[in-house]
Amino acid sequence: MEIIKGLENIREKHESIVTLGTFDGLHTGHKKIIDKVAEEAKNKNIQSVLVTFEPHPRLVLNNTQNAIQLLSTIEEKIEILQSFNIDRVVIINFNNDFANNSYQDFVKNVLIDKLAMRHLVIGYDHHFGKNRKGNYNSLQDLTEQAHFEITKVDPLYVEDTVVSSSLIRSCLREGKVRVASTFLGRHYRLDGKVVKGDGRGKALNFPTANIEIRDTHKIIPMNGVYAVDTIVKDQRYKGMMNIGFRPTFTSANYAVEVHIFGLQENIYGEEIIVYFKKRLRREIKFSSKDELIKQLEIDKEKSLHL
Length: 306
Prior knowledge:
The chain is of the alpha/beta class. The chain contains ten helices and 14 strands. The strands form three sheets. A six-stranded parallel sheet has the order 1-4-3-2-5-6, with helices on both faces. The protein starts with a strand and ends with a helix.
């Protein structure tokens, strides 16, 4: 798979079938679209191309910093796409100038002139271009003029529910990480660096790695205790994570911390990936340290069996 960052770096032009979008989360609904692109590319013997944008357009177009919480960073998208049958991924730098392009100009100047698009595949609800005026219906007028075909992919239903990025965000905000993983097609993840904490976990014989999340726009699941898998130094470990304010300790600050089973070494400064498997419980204020330790042992036992 060829990765091209920036339209100016497109050197070669091949006849192609294209899909485009932000693809936040690259969930099972997105996979349905991408699989269609790969299938048609094989049938037509042309190149399959996925066009996406960085940063997420809503981070540029909305004035507030909290305009959107992301399911995936661009690095995660590239990593996930390696397992898809896509020949080329084009990452366009999205800014206010680019946002002013009409969908007609984008089709002509980018998709046709730079990518030699012969077939466009988009989701049933996809909109693009200035004021989001480009969609399946409005593109019909361009197909004959610009000599390309267009295919609309219907929504993907899982248990009578339409899969979408906004639905998955809602699941994570409610702590429903198992449901989110069904829609994503994999466990939701957070990446970050291990930083020094207040040492409370070590005093309880449950030392934790405090995580500084790499991308502040990524959504952090609802406060609570979770069974997780972690990747540290390319090794995978089971663990349990606490997100929140640790109410048993009145002076505790908000933290995202993970207790990693079987890991003894100091990992301050290391990069870590956490995969969420199940929310075990909400945060609880315990009456004593012993009561807390007893609950942590229960949490650990549950986590080891997931």
